[in-house]
Design goal:
By secondary structure, the protein is an alpha/beta fold. The chain has a domain of about 170 residues: P-loop containing nucleotide triphosphate hydrolases (Rossmann fold, 3-Layer(aba) Sandwich). The termini are far apart. The radius of gyration is 19 Å and the shape is globular. It contains ten helices and ten strands. A hairpin with a 2-residue loop joins strand 1 and strand 2. Helix 7 packs parallel to helix 8. The structure holds adenosine-5'-diphosphate (ADP) and magnesium ion. The site of adenosine-5'-diphosphate has 10 residues, from helix 1.
């Protein structure tokens, strides 16, 4: 059976003051897929996320969630509420609250911050938080203030906070930036473990990391706002045009 497509991007163009940031872009993500996007600085990777999340609007083209939900007519908040979550490069956790509280505050639900922190938590909430703590491997640090966490741990906490919203699609921008090799590897394991249940797009520069998570998966290469090539990691890595614009610059290796 052909997998269901969860994101459809067709003929999308976006200019900023005459500068073409995205040109005639077509992109399809399957439900449950983990897709890695690579490309040199300025390739349009973050702009692509901005377009998917409603932060910026395309000049032309279609962006459709699921079968028929037109994302170009929705604002950032509405798109987020549909189940498309984004993790920015810099973690934004509540540094003065504990790891547990950060996750509690992020759980789906109508309650405000005050209610979340000052009312007793339900058994269902506690078990969901335990589950998230297990996934992001921060169980032993649940009562530490988030401000005390290492950089990598903060990134994992933020991924946990995104997951607390039960997103269908997760957009993750350069998660390995600033991480140690070991943290990077654990991040890869985490993202792989989320695929299937969630659909993920991961933008990354670190080729060791890309190799880890993209092995046997499809990789998309952007260059100057256009799709340079798409295919299995090994194919992309061997593509002369990719080598020329990206891998050849020595950037690809740590
Ligand atoms: P990447 O994430 O691949 O490094 P970006 O998507 O951040 O690339 O940027 C692509 C190009 O679009 C860059 O040249 C950048 O300067 C430009 N750009 C991105 N966002 C804006 C904006 N809001 N206004 C003007 N130019 C922008
Ligand atoms: Mg970027």
């Amino acid at each position: 059976m052909k997998p269901e497509i969860i994101l459809t991007v067709e003929d999308v163009n976006k200019e900023f003051d005459g500068f073409k940031a995205i040109t005639n872009l077509n992109f399809y993500l399957d439900r449950g897929e983990l897709r890695v996007i690579i490309g040199p600085n300025g390739a349009g990777k973050s702009t692509f996320f901005d377009l998917l999340t409603g932060r910026t609007k395309p000049d032309t083209g279609r962006i459709v969630f699921g079968r028929s939900t037109d994302l170009t007519s929705l604002n950032e908040f509405e798109i987020n509420r549909l189940g498309i979550g984004r993790k920015f490069q810099t973690p934004s956790v509540y540094v003065d609250h504990t790891v547990f509280e950060n996750l509690l505050l992020s759980l789906k639900g109508p309650r405000g911050v005050f209610a979340a922190l000052f009312h007793r938590t339900t058994a269902a909430q506690r078990s969901r938080i335990d589950e998230l703590l297990g996934l992001i491997r921060l169980g032993p640090k649940r009562d530490l203030r988030a401000g005390q966490l290492a950089h990598g741990e903060k990134q994992w906490l933020e991924i946990g906070m995104l997951l607390a919203q039960d997103p269908q699609v997760l957009l993750v921008d350069e998660p390995a930036a600033g991480m140690t090799d070991e943290e990077t590897h654990r991040t890869g394991e985490l993202l792989i473990s989320l695929s299937g249940k969630h659909s993920l797009i991961v933008v990354e520069h670190d080729m060791t990391f890309v190799k880890q998570i993209a092995q046997d998966r499809k990789v998309t290469v952007l260059h100057q706002g256009t799709l340079l090539c798409e295919g299995r990691f090994e194919e992309v890595q061997a593509n002369p045009r990719v080598r020329e614009v990206y891998l050849g610059r020595g950037k690809a290796h740590k």
